[in-house]
Amino acid sequence: MRSPGVHLREITDDNRDAVRALRVRGDQKQFVASVSKSLKQAARTPEANPWYRAVYRGDEPVGFVMLSWRPPAGPFEGRHFLWRLLVDKRYQGRGIGREALTQIAALVRADGATELLTSYEPGDGEPWPFYRKFGFEPTGEIDDGEIVLRLAFPAP
Q1: Model pLDDT for residues 101-146, shown as the tens digit of each residue
Q2: Ranges for the N-acetyltransferase domain (predicted)?
Q3: Looking at the domain assignment, is residue 1 inside a domain?
Q4: 32 CB-contact burial (10 Å; exposed 0-12 / middle 13-18 / buried 19+)
């Protein structure tokens, strides 16, 4: 199910408040940090090489994504790591997360990557089913209590 008109936009002074107002469902809060917390984390950890965008459907912000884009050091040195993917509770179940992730994977692949990594905290309501359906597989690694996943890109 494709959600038409989904695209990524830079976060600017014009849309920052609207993007920060996006919220996941209550039962998802343990798995996904808020946009405000994510932006603060990005500012505090420039060494992680944070790259983030608002997810829009048409002219409306509906989500947020943040990657660690080939950080120069650390556990994911030189790799692309999906750090946050958030779709507002009002827009979930419409294919927006899947479409945003499809676009992110294309950007990462265009950057020469052979894989995209992410991780999740296990628990009731965890995002593993979403990532599994997209094609991610566990790497066998655990990072800070989270299960690390890998989406491999086939050779062109």
Answers
A1: 999 999 999 999 999 999 999 988 889 999 999 999 999 999 989 9
A2: 6-156
A3: no
A4: buried
